[in-house]
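anyone seen this seq b4? input:
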Amino acid sequence: MSDLIISTPYGLYCEPADIFLDPWQSVPKAIITHAHSDHARRGCGSYLCHHHAKPLLKARLGDINVQSVEYNEKIIINGVTISLHPAGHIPGSAQIRIEYQGKVWVFSGDYKLHHDGISTNFELTPCHVFISESTFGLPFFQWPPPDQVFQEIQRWWMKNKSEGVSSILFAYSLGKAQRLLAHLQISDSPVFVHGAVHTMNEACKAAGIKLPETLRVSEVYDNRLFKGALVIAPSSANGTPWLRRFGPYRTAIVSGWMALRGARRWQAADRGFVLSDHADWNALNAVVKGTGAGKVFVTHGYTETFSRWLCENGIPAAVLHSQYTGEQTTETETAEES
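predicted toks r here
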């Protein structure tokens, strides 16, 4: 079977349809799985994504030529049938299904199985060839129940509040921040957000996602209002002068990497909470098996380990080199605070 999707210097490419998938350089036509910066780059001639991802892409990439479709809506290009299917990663995230001459390939982008309250639930999509992430592709990574983590965060915040201490949560400005807002009990307490989080909140609302009201930090002129409050910011704000207005405060990082011993201390935070928008080891294996794929390519994360494990368990697999990064310990793309 010839490769329907190949890796090129510009990114993953479907030659029969003459279109790129989450390219990492400027190309004429791109299909985008989701709006995180490692999967959605500036400079492409046109973009195709899910309806919910459209305002997120515009918020991050500016005035772009973007067409959006519904999940499971079919588009035919040069005899190639293309459709997007829920990935459950962040709002608007999708797997890209490509069918041509009786063969089906699925590029997963990033995905998770836990329902997060803001994204469409992951949809298992049978295929002949599956291209999977493996950000957390080690047996060590097995996530605790998300509700348990939200309760831990709530208790931490309430304890800090009782002591008059601000609680600073560092989380991805797109996806993780909104997930926290959707699950924490904030009705009787104001929540403040960094400018980057505010921008993504507004884009999510434009996509029809309901979120509680928050206050942008830069619009607060009396720092006494921060006493005992919850503040959500990207991890790039950690250790910067931006934090001085909140004192006294305690910090926490919300990430799958917090499962690693010493990760919190390495990131110079008071607490770490294990919550990821990526599949853990068990979920990765369940999805790969569920697709029924006879061949699996692994694009980023623990690629060598996960592909070798699949081969040893009867599923032919190989590494497909890419520039995707998965869940990073520090978010590099932020919005201006002004």
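Confidence is low (pLDDT under 50) at residues 333-338. The helical segments are 53-61, 146-162, 176-183, 195-206, 263-266, 281-291, 303-312. kinda curious what u guys think
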